[in-house]
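pls design
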């Protein structure tokens, strides 16, 4: 299931970036929905980076926390 979400994220971000790049080249303004989707993807990326960074820091400091199945192989 995670692969599907990564694929959808990659397709959406690629579409937004290509659309904005084409609009800049043609000196047109971006559609409001493209801007909103771009900000949404930026917010999603920032939030996930902070959360995963906090989990990585907690694991590095030796904090014991419940993790999903399959994460036991990443013990430091």
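designed seq:
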């Amino acid at each position: 299931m995670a692969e599907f979400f990564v694929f959808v994220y990659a397709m959406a971000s690629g579409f937004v970036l290509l659309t904005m790049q084409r609009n800049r080249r043609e000196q047109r303004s971006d559609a409001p929905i493209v801007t909103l989707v771009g900000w949404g993807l930026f917010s999603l990326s920032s939030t996930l980076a902070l959360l995963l960074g906090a989990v990585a820091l907690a694991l590095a400091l030796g904090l014991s926390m419940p993790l999903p199945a399959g994460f036991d192989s990443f013990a430091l």
